[in-house]
Amino acid sequence: MATVRSKDEIRRMVWDRLASAGVARPPLPPHGRIPNFQGSWEAARRITSLPGWRRARLVKVNPDSPQRPVRLAALREGKLLLMPTPRLRSGFLLLDPSLIPGSHYTRASTIRGAFRYGKLLGRLGDLQSLPGVDFIVEGSVAVNRWGERLGKGEGYAELEYAILRELGLVGEEVPIATSVHDLQVLPDRLPQDPYDVPVDYIATPTRLIEAVERPPRPPGILWDKLSREKLEEIPLLRELAGRR
């Protein structure tokens, strides 16, 4: 009988695999982060070819390096781009490409550039003024064909989704995609917790996978699973807690 691996064991295995195969790209090493990979631009093109992406007006994309091609595509296609700030400490950034010179889109698609060209949304009222999010792109360490996903282990992608869900800005059926290297797509089920957010689409440099029997997503913040540390460090969570 095969040994069931923990989330951390799976992450280490994937990070080691990317490094050993020579497909990890800066920032290096890939360990401890959403790993950048060879072929991220090709994977991004598979996401941006999806009908749901093409219809979307407001897209949320994580700020990690391998998803920068997706963020750049959003700006070039005239979409509003919502980016979480690192560790959610400052909330989110909204980038409106109509307010950014086209020659600056490449810089604006980076974290530092987003702070320069984006509008900071640090309070719930700022977010509630937004239209609904039409499409989400997340970074991943490991995924499988059921849409189960592991991030780097800090839980911020799950909290971002939960906050937007609490505010009615995303629903159960909003498409979520991730871009990864083929080596990050694993054949087995992944350990999952109630707050984990599965994806609908997995884009790699060589293929696009639509999740089979995707599990349901959490309906919002699972307060009984939220650590005091996260509550203290993220102002948006404290503000939401005050509304309960």
How would you sum up this structure, described in words?
There is one protein chain. This protein has 244 residues and is an alpha/beta fold. The chain has a single domain (7-243), classed as 3-Layer(aba) Sandwich (Rossmann fold). The protein has helices at 7-21, 40-48, 51-55, 68-76, 105-108, 111-117, 124-128, 156-166, 228-233, 235-243, and strands at residues 24-25, 36-37, 58-61, 80-84, 92-95, 119-121, 135-138, 142-144, 149-150, 176-179, 185-186, 201-203, 208-210. An eight-stranded mixed β-sheet has the order 6-5-4-3-7-10-12-13. Strands 9-8-11 form a three-stranded mixed β-sheet, with helices on one face. Strand 8 and strand 9 form a beta hairpin. Helix 2 (40-48) crosses helix 4 (68-76). The protein is globular and about 45 Å long.
Which tags fit this structure?
244 residues; alpha/beta; Rossmann fold; 8-stranded mixed beta sheet; 3-stranded mixed beta sheet; 10 helices; 33% helix; globular
Write a brief structural summary.
The protein is an alpha/beta fold and 244 residues long.
